[in-house]
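Chain entry —
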Amino acid sequence: MLAAMPTPNPRYDVLSLGEVLLRLDPGEGRVRTSRQFTAWEGGGEYNVARGARRCFGLNTGILTAFADNEIGRLLEDLILQGGVDTSLIRWSPYDGMGRRVRNPLNFTERGFGARGARGSVDRGHSAASQIKPGDFDFDHLFGVLGCRWLHTGGIFAGLSESTALVTIEACEAAKRHGVTVSYDLNYRPSLWQERGGFPAAQALNRRLAPFVDVMIGVLCDEPPTAGPPIPGSADLFAAEDAALRPAMEKLAAEFPNLQTIAATLRRVHTASVNDWGALCWHKGSFYRSRDYPRFDILDRIGAGDSFVAGLIAGLLRENDPQKAVDYGAAHGALAMTTPGDTSMATLHEVEKLASGGDAKVQR
């Protein structure tokens, strides 16, 4: 197994530490011209907890903070609809103006064809970005309430200096209590443009890496980019695969605590047609999902998070790296067929797609 249980009957299978935003989606239109929006909740780390709960049936909770106003309570209600435990949310008093604390908004359009998806995030002074060390009693969470798995990532860690410290605090505490830690590198230039850019993000990631068991993505000196296709190759992702395998092995040698390193594989033909797949290194062996060539997309936002949810479920519940990468890739693919940041897939649908199922009408 990946980790020893810290308590005999842990309350949580998975806890996610991260920011949750209110996503305002203009549907098929543009943010700049829309007169109506659909509201969803979303956030890189939270999406994993929701997918793990709704699709894979794991008991999950979210560690975050909201300003205590109507938007915060809407976000809470949306999280409750997803089945994720909200009892650990920190509520910050609201001043009526948002001068000191606010709830973050994410205006994101889906894109189509030649027009890529586009986001405009309003997250300054968010309650989650002001979480500081000591705000959560991690020793109580992991040692008394009990948790099998902690998931967090570079989005939350990149919000502020204090959230970087909280991420370190959480990961250190998790390791003290035998809790498996997964960390999604999830580099966002907008979060780091005033805090040292990519080198600063990688420095923090390297500081965290010794406490991580499952790394999503590969630490590198430059932001990763997909390689060009290899002419005449029958392998859909031959170039990416050839580059990722040695990079994963190098990372595993540098940080021997890592048990699993995983990454999604994507080639963008248009905003609505991508190639999709995933690769996983686990304890010295590689595992590759089936490929999804020229996959039709409705909304690509959150596909990587849905991949992580499936990966966690396969490792935590099945202890099977091949099933984990298959679950992750299928869950991520299905997440791109519905609107919003999170998937609406069932476990049956994930298992069917992972095993080569098609999109025929089911009656």
The chain is about 35% helix and 20% strand. The first strand starts at residue 12 and ends at 17. The first helix runs from residue 44 to 54. Residues 12-354 form a domain with the UDP-N-acetylmuramoyl-L-alanine:D-glutamate ligase fold (CATH 3.40.1190.20).
